[in-house]
Write a structure and sequence with these properties.
The chain is of the alpha/beta class. The chain contains 21 helices and 16 strands. The strands form 5 sheets. Strands 3-2-4-5-6 form a 5-stranded parallel β-sheet, with helices on both faces. Strands 9-10-13-8-14 form a 5-stranded parallel β-sheet. Helix 3 links the parallel strand 4 and strand 5.
Length: 497
């Protein structure tokens, strides 16, 4: 027997009283019925009580239409609550929220059946809009059977891959990796050198359905073009000068698992055609071979280049691009997620201490951390990791002060004067105004033969402006849009991109 819940009730659980207060005010304003809980045990007890009520005493409004839950809670944590809640109410969507976003949490929430995963602090207007998307009149079961389920928790992925942070940029990456855990689709990773593309590729493999099969990585840019075909597909004995024995290629080594093709944008056009055939038909020939070899491999590709532009320039096959880009993930530069630097450094310093068998990791003074958050980090997360290892070895004291930081970190980037062209305004380096800095960037791009310099700089300009506006408004997109004179949807799209 089912009853119709015409007034969906939102269940909210968080051990933080201040968060409950904020959500209380937001849900009051939205006029959505809701019920507050201080811990996960209360939620499970309430749901169990409803299930054990006589049918004639059950009220549809007492049954949850959506559960909004924190992850880190005492007694019953959010992941445990999610698992048990889904046994009792599998049809009810669950939105998990956390101030400590990492890969383990993201993967676990989606594997356990969460509908969405959001970071604190959040925009209450956006959260209410999200709730309304999920909440609809639902059929309330008269009795819910508890079914056994097997946990597939990720185990310390953030420790292995360093995919940490609470910025909106990295949260989107974590959320996407979590959603990919139940699929085998091809993935294209984009981002600057050092942003962690191979780490993400390994995480996708390790959390996916092919986790027990091989993960094989190859950089197409690091292998000479005349050797790349043999490296990928293998060769038969005598196929070319020096081929004294037959050899398996990377595709055969990755059979049943994942093949990670790094710097795919540098692959020669003739090899792109061969790769496309493998992806479309699942077979290939070894170099010099006459027998078809089956290929059961998931492809994760990565590049620092704009493949869409290379397609337009005739440097990359459009059909291959679309085969690879089933799901695209953009890895943000470290300068676009500076709020994650303290957490990342804590992780890397702890890892370095462990590797060197030290009793305790180094810690940074507030002044040193401030310098780190303002540094350029042109090498992105890879550079940050290397600096943490350098500090672990070279700093004589346990506390790292500003003077202990290497010169590459202490040399702050050029500060752009915000006078918008006012004569006489100079930055600390003596470079006049932001326009002069732009001229320098244009000249550098032209000298380096960067494709579509104007489009690239325009995109970077928009990201900086929107990013600063969001910081100024504490991530309130509506206010940021009003201040910038653009639509809120534009900000949402740009942040997503």
């Amino acid at each position: 027997m089912y009853g119709l819940n015409d007034k969906p009730t939102i269940w909210v659980v968080d051990d933080d009283k201040s968060i409950r207060w904020v959500l209380d005010k937001a849900l009051q304003k939205s006029r959505l019925p809701y019920r507050m809980f201080a811990d996960g045990r209360e939620v499970l007890d309430a749901l169990d009580f409803w299930n054990n009520q006589p049918e004639n005493k059950r009220q549809a409004g007492d049954y949850p239409a959506l559960l909004l839950s924190d992850i880190r809670m005492p007694d019953v944590n959010g992941i445990e609550l999610l698992r048990e809640f889904k046994k009792l109410a599998p049809e009810v969507p669950v939105v998990m929220m956390t101030a400590h976003s990492d890969l383990e949490n993201a993967v676990s929430t989606f594997q356990e059946g969460a509908a969405e995963y959001i970071a604190k602090p959040f925009d209450t207007e956006e959260l209410v809009a999200l709730i309304k998307r999920f909440v609809q009149p639902i059929k309330v079961p008269a009795m819910t059977n508890s079914a056994d389920s097997t946990s597939t928790d990720a185990d310390g992925f953030e420790q292995r891959y360093g995919l940490l942070g609470h910025s909106s940029a990295i949260l989107q990456v974590l959320r996407t990796v979590g959603r990919l855990s139940a699929t085998e689709v091809n993935v294209l990773l984009t981002g600057e050198t050092g942003t962690g593309k191979e780490l993400v590729a390994r995480a996708i493999h390790a959390t996916g359905v092919r986790a027990n099969a091989p993960f094989i990585a190859i950089s197409t840019a690091a292998i000479p073009a005349h050797m790349l075909e043999s490296e990928l597909f293998g060769h038969e004995k005598g196929a070319f000068t020096g081929a004294g024995n037959a050899r398996m290629g990377r595709f055969e080594e990755a059979e049943g698992g994942t093949l990670f093709l790094d710097e795919i944008g540098d692959m020669p056009m003739e090899l792109q055609a061969r790769l496309l055939r493998v992806l479309s038909e699942g077979v290939f020939y070894r170099v010099g071979g006459s027998e078809l070899v089956q290929a059961n491999v998931r492809i994760i590709a990565a590049t620092h280049q704009n493949l869409a532009q290379r397609v337009e320039q005739g440097l990359f096959r459009a059909d291959l691009y679309h085969r690879l880009n089933v799901v695209g993930i953009h890895l943000p530069a470290l300068r676009d997620r500076t709020e994650d630097i303290p957490q990342l450094m804590q992780h890397f310093l702890a890892q370095a201490a462990k590797d060197l068998r030290l009793l305790a990791p180094k810690t940074l003074s507030p002044a040193a951390m401030e310098v780190c958050q303002k540094a350029a980090w042109t090498g992105n997360v890879r550079q940050l990791d290397n600096v943490c290892r350098w500090l672990t070895v070279m700093t004589p004291t346990q506390l790292v002060n500003e003077a202990d930081l290497p010169a590459e970190v202490r040399e702050r980037p050029v500060e752009v004067n915000a006078s918008f062209g006012q004569s006489g305004a100079t930055g600390m380096t003596g470079v006049n105004t932001w326009q002069e800095l732009l001229r320098i960037a244009v000249r550098q791009g032209l000298n380096d033969q960067v494709p579509a310099v104007m489009l690239k700089l325009q995109d970077q300009f928009e990201q900086v402006v929107i990013g600063e506006a969001l910081k100024y408004t504490h991530n309130h997109r509506q206010k940021a849009a009003q201040l910038l004179g653009i639509g809120r949807n534009t900000i949402t799209r740009k942040v997503r991109d």
